[in-house]
Amino acid sequence: MSSLRGKARSAAVGAVAVIGLATATAAPAAATNSATITMYSARNPTNDLGWGQWWGNPEGSHQNGEIAVFDNECDGDNGIFAALYKHDGTLVNVVSVRGCTSSNVIGVKAESNGGPAWGESVTFEVCKLLPAGQKVDCQSTRRVNA
């Protein structure tokens, strides 16, 4: 487990907000096969509610990437949602989490099972997840599965 994932899983509990700002943290130019998108509180823009992370090939149980979501807040049934799409917009995987400092990690599907090819452009999206299942304040970024 990378130190980034370890730090993410031990995130501190903070204030609560349902709707707010979101930012995408750009990866360095040489590391286009990973991304982190953090969701921030509307009431306190310095408070991160949680985030989603994507690591490209060769991470994950199918050696084709991994998606993780982290919910930093003890705010009831709100959570964090993440999705990965192939270059043509085809949905590959989704993962979500709800609850106090909870996390959820999944392996991206193998190419033979509908996952992205090595070197393929992908879109990674992260949203706030409301109690009734609505996704709000979604942010996305494009990367390369390499």
Can you give keywords for this protein?
mainly beta; 45% strand; Secreted protein; signal; five-stranded antiparallel beta sheet; 9 strands; 146 residues; 5% helix; single chain; Immunoglobulin-like; four-stranded antiparallel beta sheet; disordered N terminus
Please give a quick description of this structure.
The protein is mostly beta strands and 146 residues long.
In helices, the fraction of residues equals: under 10%
| Biggest pleated sheet | 5 strands, antiparallel
The helix-and-strand class reads mainly beta
Which term fits the overall shape? elongated
Compressed to H and E, one letter per element, the order equals HEEEEEEEEE
Protein name: Secreted protein
Organism: Actinomadura decatromicini
Signal peptide: 1-29
Keywords: Signal
How are the SSEs placed, and which strands pair?
Elements: H1 3-9, E1 22-25, E2 34-40, E3 48-55, E4 66-71, E5 79-86, E6 91-98, E7 102-107, E8 121-129, E9 135-144
Antiparallel strand pairs: 1-2, 2-3, 3-4, 4-7, 5-6, 5-8, 8-9
Protein name: Secreted protein
Signal peptide: 1-29
Keywords: Signal
Describe the structure.
There is one protein chain. The chain has 146 residues and is mostly beta strands. The chain has one domain (3-144): Immunoglobulin-like (Sandwich), CATH 2.60.40. Helix content is 5%, strand content 45%. A five-stranded antiparallel sheet has the order 1-2-3-4-7, with no helix packed on it. The chain has a four-stranded antiparallel sheet with strand order 6-5-8-9, with no helix packed on it. The longest helix has 7 residues, at 3-9. It is elongated and about 40 Å long.
